[in-house]
Write a structure and sequence with these properties.
The protein is of the alpha+beta class. The chain has helices at residues 29-35, 82-85, 89-92, 117-124, and strands at residues 8-9, 14-19, 22-27, 38-42, 49-50, 55-61, 65-69, 74-79, 101-105.
């Protein structure tokens, strides 16, 4: 299982990459394997400011639909529009082409609440 050490993680199986005051968010390799083939990613919260743990979208797989929870409070400033025509990128490249949203962080203190790669590995039993 791929759990890059340079990223932060949530108990909801999302990864976070921090660059200044912008966080890029996607779902982990573990999550995409559990969900199966991703057929649709929906994010209708572009340009909205949400609190940590609020639902910012959904990911639909062949077997199920799962909510996506925002790991950090902030404004959704970008959606990976490539996922509209290529949702399978979430399966094939969850940490690269399969990223979902970019968030302008409004509370940097919340970054400390995210899991390290080691803590996430323990959570998923990797």
């Amino acid at each position: 299982m791929n759990i890059p050490a340079n990223l932060k993680y949530t108990k909801d199986h999302e990864w976070v990459s921090i660059d200044g005051d912008v966080a890029t968010v996607g779902i982990t390799d573990f999550a995409q394997k559990e969900l199966g083939d991703i057929v649709y990613v929906e994010v209708e919260t572009l340009d909205q400011t949400l609190d940590k743990d609020e639902v910012f979208g959904t990911v639909e797989a062949v077997k199920t639909v799962s909510d996506l929870f925002l790991p950090l409070s902030g404004e959704i400033i970008e959606f990976n529009e490539d996922l509209e025509s290529n949702p399978e990128h979430v399966n094939s490249d969850p940490y690269g082409a399969g990223w979902m949203v970019k968030v302008k962080i409004s509370n940097a203190a919340e970054i400390e609440e995210l899991l390290s790669s080691e803590a996430y590995s323990t959570l998923v039993g990797a």
